[in-house]
Amino acid sequence: MRIVLATALESADLTPSDQLYADALERRGCNVSAAPWDGPRAAFDGADAVVIRATWGYYRTLEAFRDWTETTARASRLFNSIDLVRWNLRKDYLGKLAAAGVRVPHSHVVACEAAVIAGVLDGEGWDRAVVKPATGASGHSVELLQRATLHSQVAALSDESRSSGVVVQEFLPEIAEGELSLVYFDSVFSHALRKRPPPGEFRSNSRYKPTRTAETPPPAVTAQGVACLAALPERPLYARVDGVVRDGTLIVIEVEVLEPALFMEFDPPSAERFAAATLERLKQGL
Fold first, then answer.
1. pTM value?
2. String of DSSP letters for 20-89
3. CA 164, CA 109: separation in Å to the nearest integer?
4. Do 201 and 127 lie in a common domain?
5. Do residues 97 and 231 both lie within one domain?
6. Mean predicted lDDT score pLDDT of the chain
């Protein structure tokens, strides 16, 4: 069984987390390699499966990435599937989750224009809101907009925000206690991590130097994550559900089924679970 883990030219090597996964697959007799999605396509030829893992920066060349995923899905088994990739590429999926009964922050996908964003704040009665590109990753161009400085802040947003539009989202004060990342394999809870932003910061992506600690959430919270994944177009092989908990309820900020960090280094046995789930999928042809 030949399995290729997709990375990116800007960071072509496997992360420590994904190396654990590769090792677990190899212990099961697989031939595992890593290859950048934006490198030579021949690296993926003949693969029994391609697992999207660290395709950093894909949002900067979105059409090329879309083409790569579509082409790869036609040539081999792509995980997660092309249907899930399409679903996850644009954050308007939050509205679909809300319609399915999943608790998400109040969110609006709108044009990246100060007047339009101001209209959202007025309609919701917000003095501040989180804004992020409708298509983006890695915490890139995520900002906390304040009504008093809205125009200058919007003017400084990224080109990706202008081309894709933005998600304007209610600010969740619980984020000060850290964002909870729940990891699932085949929609079965595996492990969790809490990412606490530094003082004065609300973003918990790695570039902002959060404190990361393993955590064991209550079963009721992990079950809410499972219910969230049930609202997706199909069951993902791997998923990360990010959110905060308010009065026992998980508020889902994002669902990552494209290229999330899975933090397996915080729970090394999780790599074995991921490998076993991968091979079971391939065995069953799912």
1. 0.92
2. HHHHHHHHTT-EEEEEETTS-GGGGTT-SEEEE---TTGGGGHHHHHHHHHHHHHHSEEES-HHHHHHHS
3. 10
4. no
5. yes
6. 92
